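To make this tangible, we now present a fold written out as tokens:
***
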Amino acid sequence: MIDVTRLRVFRAVVSSGTVQAAATNLGYSPSAVSQHLAALQRETGLTLFEKSGRGIAPTPAGLALAAGSEEVVEALGRLDGLVEDLREGRSGTLSIGTFPSAGQYWIPEVARTLSAEFPSLLINLDLIDVIDGPRSPYDIELRAEDPQLAPTSVEGHRRIELLEEAYVAILPAGHPLADRDEVALSDLAGERLIAEGMADTTCSGILRRAYAASGAAPRYVARSSDHHAAVGLVAAGVGITLLPRLAMGPLREGVVERPVAGEAAPRRRIVAFVSEAAAPRKAVVRAVALLHEVARRREAAAA
């Protein structure tokens, strides 16, 4: 098998024209270059150079080897780059599991920066919404929690708290409660309500417990698994919905948002679970830092 270092030295001599020039370019001594050339000739059984005046010139066999090895050397260069990218965390994959609103409003900001800083990184994104569950299959998983309950944990993952946020009421612009600066859950007694999220999701559980604590009995007339659809139903005059502030997003025409106030007002905590195995990778470290930045901006905007 041809020694790669010797092949590169040989190509440097062919390209530069002299042993001295190649030695200067490579940072070798001329004798070291000559030794590599002699070893390559023994290795291949070919005469690669012949005397030419005071110097040497490649033989036809040498020229053919130089031309034929170009693709191999380029491939080796790409392989070296891949190894360096893997070592520095610039390549490979990053798997993220997230609930829908963070997937829409947070992850794109994180992914934009990661794509610029780690151009070979493949980001795999799954939208999920769970209360609790088995060990996460993701490098990073974003989950929502009820701050009134015990903190959750995921085996083999670090827990990182990012943000605690309030809920807001989304109302038709002409609704009587739209004239208020804020609303309480008791104000919604008897109102037509739209539930955002299926019954087994974290946010549904947060609202159930909040209504129970307030003593108010919600009257649901519709349920949607998507926050966009829930806001659409509000705009259509079907009813009122309560959303975490992050899920609210830019409001469409015809609806308004009002803070939900009172001791029983619902809140949501956003937590990242980071795989212990993936945590040291540079792309994962950077992604966690970016999530903290996004959460701080969101918190400052809501203040």
